[in-house]
## 1
Amino acid sequence: MNNKTNSPFVSSTIMPARVINLAIDTAYIYSQTSGSYAGVGVYMMDNNVEGGSTNEGGLELVTDVTAGFGIAFNAFPIDAAGNQGDTVAIVGFEISDGTNIFGDFGWPTEQPAGSSYQWMGTAIVQGNCTYQIKIGVSIGGAPMQYFWWDPFFNCTA
């Protein structure tokens, strides 16, 4: 059992030090033009306010992380009735500026269905960066539209 998918130690059993959650107002976001996004309706938060993270509640979250520790990501739809079939999916990440804190081996990867976290990575390199998070949004089964924006990481030892 040396391959990741057959390993008895699946990522869902790992407790990351930082968890970043995205709550997305699906009806509002879906009504916007796909692409780079700088508006309202995206609510980012992490579990490190006391440790220095700032700007929770919008799309310019600044997350303080420690090199060597895991970072998990989840995205959730906010819809009016809670049962409209709206979906939000993280589809990727990109470093826009600064240090690639994930290095060569810590880049976030999508986790298997049923895992506690949708994506997980590991901060490897100290530094600061702006990263793009890219999401797909669908309301009521309509085709996905894609949006991205640039939150931040500060990674220390």
## 2
Amino acid sequence: MIAETICAAVSVAGLGIAGITAYRRRFLAATRIAAWSLIPVGLVLTGAVEWAVDTAFSPTAWIGFGLLGGAWALFATTRAVERRAGVPGRKERRAARAAAKREAVAPTASAPSLGRGAGATAAPGKSAPSGGARTGGAKAGGDDFSDIEAILKKHGI
């Protein structure tokens, strides 16, 4: 009975403050204050206050709160031991799986192998063209794929 009276007094005081705020032409703030001040009366009318008062003085409820606190303490203890022992947590396991998936999907490519006669094989009985006879000389031998390699590196391939 006293809890309901206190809630009603708080609501009346809040509505009074909301009225003063509205008088000062701050209607948005006055509406918010009125909304907050109606919550205690609403809780009384729904029976939530009576339930809270009954729970506060019930030894069974306090045993339940104690069990919930004990469960929370067990969770916190196992988490602390897990961190201290170096057991990988959820984030580390997820990162390891993502790294493994990336390696499986896109392995790193090796450099292309350019043999001694890459593209310059001679027909039987004829000699292979010399490095100077080709269109780039010695430069062409090392740079014919450099532009392609640059494009591939640019795209991360």
## 3
Amino acid sequence: MPQRSVVPPGMEPLVERFRYSPGVLVDHTLYIAGMVGRRPDMTVVEEPEAQFAQALDNVGAVLAAAGGSFADVVEMETWFTDFRTHLPTFMRVKDRYFTTAPFPTWTGYGVVEFSTPGILCEIKCTAVLGATDA
């Protein structure tokens, strides 16, 4: 099957600097790379709730660039540097993005650190575009 790289406006530095695609579309399945609470200028959002919202906004940008939405997400994986502390806040933020059933599967992990200082969470999703239209 042919693959298409999905690079929303403003995420070009990820491809240029780190040489990876924010998303890869294969048929109707969109694989979204781990997104973090980083702005287009590559600075990290400091406040936890705002950082989680920025990370989900980044997921949403990849979805939109491929013609999808949060309703198309079938799987989500999250990694946290302080899982127990940040989980309640993350869940409140997440619920603003995932608003209708069926909700995606979700697996969360605790990790020691990320490659960029200040990152609290990383979110990776898989979406099947048009799955909710059936």
